[in-house]
Amino acid sequence: MSNTKNIRIGGASGFWGESDMAVPQFLQAGGLDYIVFDYLAEITMSIMARARAKNPDMGYAVDFVTAVIKPNIKDIANQGVKLISNAGGTNPAACGDAVRAVIADAGLDLKVAVITGDDLTGRADEFAQTKEMFTGEAFPDIESIASINAYLGAFPIAKALNDGADIVITGRCVDSAVTLGACIHEFGWDRDDLDQLAGASLAGHILECGPQATGGNFTDWESVADTMDNAGYPIAEIADDGSFVTTKPDDTGGAVTVGTVGEQMLYEIGDPQAYMLPDVVCDFSMVELDQLGENRVLVKGAKGYPAPDSFKASATFADGWKMVAPFFFVGMDASRKAKSFAENALKRTRAKLRASNAGDFDDVLIETLGDDSHFGDFSDSSQSREVVLKMAVKHRDPKAAMLLLKEATGLGLATPPGLSFFSGGRPKPSPVVRLFSLTVPKSDVQISIDFGDGPVNLVKEAGAKFDSASITRPDCPERSATDEAFADVPLIQLAWGRSGDKGDKSNIGILPRDPSYTEWLWAALDTDTVRRRFAHFLQNTDDPASVERFFLPGTGAINFLLHDVLGGGGVASMRNDPQGKSYAQILLATPIPIPQSLAEAL
Prior knowledge:
Elements: E1 6-13, H1 22-29, E2 34-37, H2 42-54, H3 62-79, E3 82-85, H4 92-105, E4 112-116, E5 145-150, H5 155-162, E6 167-170, H6 177-187, H7 194-207, E7 235-239, E8 244-247, H8 258-266, E9 275-276, E10 281-283, E11 288-293, E12 296-300, E13 303-305, E14 310-330, H9 334-355, E15 363-369, E16 386-395, H10 398-410, E17 419-421, E18 430-441, E19 448-450, E20 455-457, E21 486-490, E22 495-502, E23 505-512, H11 518-524, H12 527-533, E24 547-552, E25 557-562, H13 583-587, E26 591-595, H14 596-601
Helix pairs in contact: 3-4, 5-6, 6-7, 9-10
C-alpha cells in the first residue's frame, strides 16, 4: 500500500431491508471518513416505481431517512463523517427533501446533494426497437414497463463532494460507485487513472454487501456462527494507489480473512478480466490477498481498462401472474407421495381451465425440498421421510393462477397419506416482474446535481467501445505428473465458494484454501463437469457455451458463469432459489481426485 493518505470507508447496507445496526456500530468505533449504503436491486426498482406511482412522495428507501439519518444525524455531524447512498431509488429528489427536513429539525447545517439522470422510464418509446442485450428478445410492451434506469457511475458523486456535499443521494448507480466516488474526490483521480479506479471499485465491491465480507454466507460458517448476532460491518482503508485493507470495527463478530474477502471478491461477477462499470472496465484476475493480521486483509493488483461508451440500463416489466403454494408430506416415500399429489392437483386444475377456455398455464414448476432434488443426478439415494412440496404456476390471469390453490386444497381428502397444509394466511397470486437489460449511449443520458436550489446539468460523459477480444488471457495451470494413486475428496475440503445472480445468469466463484490446490481444482472442475452438476437447472444443457470458466492467477481462483440457469431470475423465477445463492454449496459437494498423500494430509 502507498504510504501517503488513506481514507476509511464503512459499508453499512447491502440491500433494502438490511439491518440498521451498522451506522451505530461505526459511530461508536469512530475514525471513519465515509459511510456508504447500497439499497438497490432490479426488483427493488420496480417495487419503488409502483410506490411512487401510488404516492409521488414515495419511491425511495424510507428507512435511510428514518433508521439512519434521524436517530444518528447529530453524531454523524459531530464526527464529520460523510454519507453516500443510492437510497434515492426511483425518487431521489423526494429522498433528498426528506433528509434536508430532518437536518433542519436537528438545527444542523449540512449540505445534501441529489444526483439524477438515471431514470429513463419516460423515454420507453425510444427503446421500442431495442433488443435485450443478452437474449436478443424484443422490447416489451410499453404499457407493461414499470421502470427503466441507467446504472450511473462515480464521477457525479465526486463532483457533488467537490462542491461541498456532506450527504450524497443518488438514484440507480452501480453498487461500487458510492465508494469509488469518495476516492475520486479525496485523491483527485481523473478518468485516466485506470488502475486506481479499478482498485477502488473492487473496494466498493467488497463493501457493497455489508457483512458478506466479514463472515456472512461464508463457506466456513461455523467458525463465526456464535458471533454473528453482533456481526461486524466491513471497512476499507483505501490508499491513493487503489490498494486497500479490509477490516471491521474492534469487538464485533465475524471475521475478516482471505477466505471471507476472497469469496466476496468473486461474488456476482462474470468475466473477471472484463468487469464492466461505467467508469472503468476492471481486471481482477491478478488481484492478491494478504492476511496482514487479525481481521486485516490487504487487497492489491486490480487493473483497469478505459470506461465503456454506454451505460448499462435495466428495464423491469409486468409479465403475468404467478402462484406459489407450499404443502408438506411426512412419512415413508414422502417425495413420491408429494409428486403424485402435485400431478393430480394439476390435472384437476387444467381440466377446469379447459372447461372455461382460460388457456393453459404459461409455466409450471414442481419442486420438493428435503429429498436432495437440488443436486439433480448427483443426489443422495437415501429416502427422506419429510419433504416440502412447492407447486408454482404462471398465467396471464391471476384468477387462473389462484385456481391451482383451490383445486390442490380441495384434493386434501383424496391424497396420499401424510399431507399437512401450510399454516398462516393462504398465498395469493403475485405479479411476475421480468428484467430487460440494454445499453444506452452515454451521450444520451443527462446527469444533474441538485443541492436544493434546482438541478445543474453536468457535462455528458464519454468513453470508448470495449473489445473483449483484446484481453490477454492467463496461462491455465497444468496438473503435475505423478505415479501416486488418487483419492476423491469433496471440493469443500480444498476450496471456499460463493455464488450469486445477474438476471438469469449465476456465477460460482471457487477460491482454493491453499495455492497448491489450484492445479487439482482446475483439472477436475472443467465446464463439462459443472454443466452435468447443474443440468437440471440449465435451460440449454447441451450447449457448451451455457457454462463459461475463467482463471484468476492472483489467487488461483476459478469463476464459472452459468447462462439461463435461474428460471428467469429474480421475481420472474418460480424456483426455490431464484438467485443461485445455493449453487456454490451444490458444487462444493463435487468429489475432486487428488494424490493419496495430499488426501491423507487433509
